[in-house]
Amino acid sequence: MSKKSTSVIIDDIQSFIDRIQFYTDGITFDDFIANSMIVEACMYNIQIIGEAVGHIDDDIQASNPQIPWALIQNMRNRITHEYAGTDLPAIWNVIKQDLPYLKVELVKLKNKLQ
Q: pTM (2 decimals)?
């Protein structure tokens, strides 16, 4: 199997972010926690984002410290290994605060790579 390019990985991550934003558009935190399908869909996509980040070359990560690569992977690990005790306010914060920032930074990174 061939390795995906960083550009393709970034596209994938942006797609996962778009899905999460679609699922949570116009809802409150209370709406979020009341809908297990939305919670699970968002958590799944956050896990996939964390996995995808792990496939971005270390040198690209090191040259782009504005993106919290390790924190993204750590969130994936927390969801994967502590799923029953997942902190939903923290997930909501990731969705509403961190993912929009990540999306902007990934656009900048992709532009640098072209």
A: 0.92
